[in-house]
Design goal:
It is a single chain. The protein is of the alpha/beta class. The chain has 13 helices and 14 strands. The protein is elongated, with a radius of gyration of 27 Å. The structure holds adenosine-5'-triphosphate and magnesium ion. Adenosine-5'-triphosphate binds next to helix 4, strand 10 and helix 11.
């Protein structure tokens, strides 16, 4: 059917009481950004329950980018008609539009939001259905219709639609807080960053680089990954922490099976320091239970011991195959699998401990004064800003 309006719904957000206005305005800005190429073909009407896009030229307009806007739950392509006072007139319009749809069965579902409209929903449904039955071969099916024609009768007009498209849901980026995401360049961490963004978290990234063991290709890779994630967050700060000295030291003094555990404890410590400096209240990463030795619950417990900051692990209970599927969906997979040496893979011991002991970690760590090294690393971070 024809459309001249897009009704945008934000579902879950509507439960958020007093923050609601901020959320809606933020969502409106993100929608605007996603439709930059079509600015001249639409205007936006932001209301407390929905956002309406009035499309002036549907042939040049493309709504596909709306499917990627965090916080947008669904949208409908609607025909808005105004100055309709007679039911007959409305029935004629609906008949004309339903003829353009494919299917054998239909249902009419009217909602009278403007109670001053002189007919109740039931009357409207019956009148339109009767008109359609008389003038087409369509049959009514109230349970599972091929064509569901919905009508919303509002003060400013009647919105008729048959098509509702799902968005990614969640909250608009940056509306629920901030998180410092540990970004490695592998498959998992960009997906973790995406899930946080989708949840409305503003993500800042931290990467531990170990040149010359890891080459500069890693940084390019991270920039490419983040430019994909720009679709969900317009501007992403990436902090690169020089990690070589610390890592060499760890390998010098660790007992067999312990370097990975100690290395991850140091990563958490560094992440916490940077997070505090940036006033970010949480750390995030791509850890998933059971995926590798450092990701057993026992291991996480020992690693986590170094910080009180919440560690958000959105992939914690996900299967690798599901993570890969998401990675492909957000267009990161091909970048993530580009070969590069990860600091973890270079130094990985033959047999990492799956159940490391906290006592052992403390003994190893007491063998060197790591605080100054951590401070030095934080002082020498490099910032890259990745923008849409
Ligand atoms: P990924 O696919 O994200 O690299 P992984 O399965 O390889 O994850 P690990 O290497 O154990 O798992 O890393 C677990 C998490 O720790 C990563 O998802 C990432 O959040 C973080 N991480 C690992 N290496 C680095 C690094 N060099 N810089 C920043 N974060 C890192
Ligand atoms: Mg990795």
């Amino acid at each position: 059917m024809d459309y001249n309006t897009i009704i945008v719904r934000f579902g879950e957000m509507s439960t958020k009481g007093k923050n609601r206005k901020d959320f809606i305005n933020k969502l409106a800005r993100v929608i605007k950004k996603s439709l930059t190429n079509y600015e001249e073909y639409y205007s936006m009407d932001v209301r407390h329950d929905h956002i309406y896009l009035n499309i002036t030229d549907t042939s040049n307009f493309n709504y596909n980018s709306l499917k990627e806007v965090a916080g947008l739950h669904s949208f409908s392509l609607a025909l808005k008609v105004t100055d309709i006072y007679e039911l007959d007139e409305l029935c004629d319009i609906c008949l004309e539009q339903i003829k353009k749809e494919e299917g054998k069965t239909f249902k009419i579902a009217a909602r009278r939001i403007d109670k001053s409209f002189p007919y109740i929903s039931d009357e409207i449904n019956r009148a339109i259905a009767t008109k359609v039955l008389k003038n087409t071969d369509l049959k009514v099916d109230v349970h599972n219709p091929d064509i569901l024609m919905s009508l919303e009768i509002r003060v400013d007009g009647i919105y008729i639609f048959t098509q509702t498209i799902n968005g990614i849901g969640g909250y608009p980026s940056g509306s629920t807080g901030r998180c410092l995401m540990m970004l490695s360049g592998g498959i998992d961490s960009p997906v973790a960053a995406y899930l946080m963004m989708k949840r409305g978290i503003e993500v800042t990234c931290i990467h531990f680089a170990s040149p010359p063991y890891t080459n500069s290709g890693v940084i390019l890779k991270l920039e490419d990954l983040l430019s994909k994630l720009n679709l969900y967050q317009e501007k992403i700060n990436l902090y690169i922490v020089p990690f070589t000295k610390i890592q060499e030291k760890i390998y010098e003094i660790s007992f067999e099976g312990y370097p990975i555990t100690i290395m991850r404890r140091m990563m958490y410590r560094l992440a916490e320091k940077l997070a505090n400096k940036l006033h970010i209240p949480a750390i995030g990463n791509g850890e998933s239970i059971g995926q590798v030795a450092s990701q057993t619950v026992e291991s996480l417990n020992v690693i986590n011991e170094v910080t009180n900051m919440p560690i958000l692990r959105p992939l914690c209970a996900m299967d690798k195959l599901d993570i890969i599927e998401l990675s492909k969906k957000i267009d990161c997979y091909d970048i993530s699998i580009r070969p590069f040496e990860d600091c973890c893979t270079i130094f990985a011991p033959v047999k990492p401990k799956t159940k490391p002991k906290l006592k052992e970690c403390k003994i190893i760590e007491s063998k060197f004064d790591f605080e100054p090294l951590l401070e030095e690393a934080i002082e020498n971070v490099e910032l890259k800003v990745i923008k849409l």
